[in-house]
Write a structure and sequence with these properties.
The complex is a heterodimer of chains A (about 300) and B (about 325). Chain A has about 300 residues and is α/β, with parallel strands linked by helices. Helix content of chain A is about 45%, strand content about 20%. Chain A has two domains: about 25-160, Nitrogenase molybdenum iron protein domain (Rossmann fold, 3-Layer(aba) Sandwich), CATH 3.40.50; about 170-295, Nitrogenase molybdenum iron protein domain (Rossmann fold). With about 325 residues, chain B is mostly helical. Classes of the chains: A alpha/beta (about 300), B mainly alpha (about 325).
Chain lengths: ~300, ~325
């Protein structure tokens, strides 16, 4: 008769012991300091670079604001995590869907979710970290913060060391004379990603030159054909969001042949998800590898 | 010699001044604000000694010239459309925006961009033009355009309602496709940065047709200004006139919004300036509104390139910045 309650008590004691054995994690984030007494296991993330950070830590999120499309999480990240529930768009995630997942940690983007931060903290402890407009270096810091929160700082530190070695190795293979430019294309226009953007900062990290002048403080620069002619990069990497883009039109113009990339054929189509949306460490590795393989062509 | 000029001479002088203001803007916009340091001399050489291998000349001919031409003609279109709208509704605050043409175009363009249903399979220009027509026709039908003696106020109310509906749909589309929003927002503010010779060849035939239609409504509008009943008794079929005016406005605005996005306030300002200069005769008012609209957009486009170079500020924002104080001035003047 007494066995059941005693068993229950035993379990509870074990749980308490188990919990107390985990060190409390304290993380500085954009809305102050967050102290976690337990290691979170049910994590909801509201931006893609945080998914990348969790994948590096080897932790699967239960929910992602993936805009309702699982393919928006790039494959190299998807391969490292298990299945997840969509919690709506990054711009306006569903508070209800997040609450239904009963998370014990939410990671939100300072740029997009500042206004719903207090709602999120009522559901679970929430980290507010930078995602929108993040650079390569900034992301490495954010990634380590997330690693601390999920109790994987050591693993991530090791992986980061490996990553830095890899980047250093790839940097050696790059030629540093030519200029490199990544641009996003739609049927409405072309946007150059400057060195303060994610792809731009990865390109800079690899020691590659940008064709843009340094006094440019835009992250994304909308570019007319005339400005592209002036910018005239030696390599142009384009990520197309729509099937037809303004580039199709420009290529028909007699002025197209004035571009260096038209003569050298150094215009390469890349995945906008990897180069622009993902903005994580794994994405950076993919960008760097892609650039290195182009060099060796 | 006669010291006093007659009305015809004064009007001619005014028209000439307007033309030169527009022409100066047009020429400056051919070479101004360029990373290539284009100069007026390049424009001159393009005319006097064309050279296919000169990059400056090629840029002016292939990129600048179509852009300036399209800017001017869109200004002309919007200016005339505004004059017709104000004549039709007999409301000085009416403008082509009222017809939900802009919001209809924006709505279908946004839905097309995010890949909504069947809209994915048609080119975005076609979707945009269809949206403009649908928005305009909805307002026209709801506003009692086919009824006799319909109150102009009904058209205004229908416009507000349809505008609201279409705008909220557009916003929903923008929220669903966050990453596309960036490029759509730029278009939604009205931008001339992507126009080329192809845009010009799509623009001028429609504009010409609409212009002929516009001229054909001038006599009717002159008489309607005296009141619809008076106009009827003078032999004007008011319902037919209203239909023709609406069709003209629809053509003018739809083609403009398809190519450059919604450029606001031109249709409001231009007819007012035209009225201040040439009084109320629509035969003068229509071309004058066109001239003023053309000059306005031409200069606004030039400004849009020089605010924060090398980035372009959408021209619609510039016209709105000019237009808003003007709108407030109109309201205040109406009060006193």
């Amino acid at each position: 008769m007494l066995i059941k309650p005693i068993f229950k008590l035993f379990v509870i004691i074990q749980l308490i012991l188990g919990i107390s054995s985990v060190q409390a994690a304290t993380i500085e984030h954009d809305a102050g300091t967050l102290t976690l007494t337990t290691t979170p296991t049910r994590i909801v993330v509201l931006a893609f670079s945080f998914v990348d950070a969790l994948a590096v830590a080897g932790v699967s999120p239960v929910g992602i604001a993936d805009d309702g499309d699982k393919n928006r999480v790039i494959k190299s990240v998807r391969d490292h995590i298990g299945d997840w529930q969509s919690v709506g768009s990054r711009y306006q995630p569903s508070i209800e869907a997040i609450a239904a997942l009963k998370p014990d940690l939410i990671i939100a983007d300072t740029g997009r979710h500042q206004s719903i931060y207090s709602d999120l903290t009522r559901i679970a402890p929430t980290l507010l970290l930078k995602n929108r407009g993040i650079t390569y270096q900034e992301n490495l810091v954010v990634m380590q913060k997330i690693a601390t929160a999920v109790g994987k700082s050591e693993e991530v530190a090791n992986r980061l060391a490996e990553h830095k070695k890899m980047m250093q190795g790839l940097k050696q293979q790059m030629e540093t004379v030519s200029t490199f430019q990544f641009a996003v294309l739609t049927d409405k226009g072309m946007w150059l990603h400057t060195p303060t953007s994610y792809a731009g900062s990865v390109i800079a990290e690899l020691g590659l030159k940008s064709p843009l002048s340094a006094d440019n403080d835009n992250t994304y620069l909308q570019t007319s054909f005339e400005q592209l002619l002036k910018t005239n990069p030696d390599w142009l990497l384009v990520g197309k969001y729509t099937k037809n883009t303004v580039l199709d039109k420009w290529q028909k113009s007699p002025l197209w042949k004035m571009l260096s990339v038209a003569k050298s054929k150094q215009i390469i189509e890349v995945s906008p998800e990897v180069w622009s949306l993902a903005s994580g460490m794994l994405a950076a590795e993919q960008i760097a590898t892609a650039l290195a393989s182009q060099m060796q062509r | 010699m006669n010291m006093y000029l007659n009305t015809r001479q004064i009007n001619g002088f005014k028209a000439l001044s307007l033309c030169s203001v527009g022409l100066i803007g047009f020429i400056i916009s051919l070479y101004g604000q360029s990373d290539f340091l284009l100069q007026a001399g390049d424009v001159w050489r393009l005319i006097s000694a064309p050279d296919n291998n000169d990059i400056n000349q090629q840029i002016i001919f292939l990129l600048r010239l179509p852009r300036s031409l399209v800017a001017c003609l869109i200004g002309v279109n919007l200016g005339i459309a505004g004059a017709l709208m104000q004549g039709l509704t007999r409301n000085p605050l009416a403008s082509p925006t009222l017809f939900a043409i802009n919001s209809g175009a924006a709505c279908l363009m946004a839905l097309n961009s995010i890949g909504f249903g069947v809209l994915t399979h048609i080119p975005s220009e076609v979707a945009t033009f269809a949206g403009a027509l649908i928005g305009g026709l909805l307002v026209f039908l709801l506003g009692g355009g086919l009824q006799q003696n319909a109150n102009p106020l009904r058209l205004v109310l229908a416009g507000i309602a349809i505008n609201g509906l279409l705008t909220s749909l557009t916003r929903a589309a923008l929220i669903i496709a966050d990453d596309m929003a960036y490029s759509m927002l730029h278009w939604l503010s009205g931008s001339l940065s992507e126009v080329d010779w192809q845009s010009w060849s799509q623009l001028w035939p429609v504009s010409l047709l609409a212009f002929v239609l516009a001229l054909s409504t001038c006599r009717g509008l002159n008489l309607t200004a005296l009141g619809e009943q008076t106009a009827s008794s003078l032999g004007i079929n008011v319902t037919f006139l209203r239909g023709r005016v609406c069709l003209t406005v629809l053509l003018f605005t739809s083609i403009s919004v398809t190519l450059a996005g919604p450029i606001v306030f031109v249709g409001l300002i231009a007819p007012h300036l035209a009225r201040a200069l040439f009084r109320h005769n629509y035969f003068l008012l229509v071309p004058a509104s066109g001239l003023i609209g053309g000059a306005l957009v031409c200069w606004a486009d030039l400004l849009s390139r020089s605010i924060v170079p090398p980035a372009e500020t959408p021209v619609g924002i510039v016209t709105a910045l000019i237009g808003t104080p003007f709108f407030i001035y109109l309201v205040l003047r109406g009060k006193s």
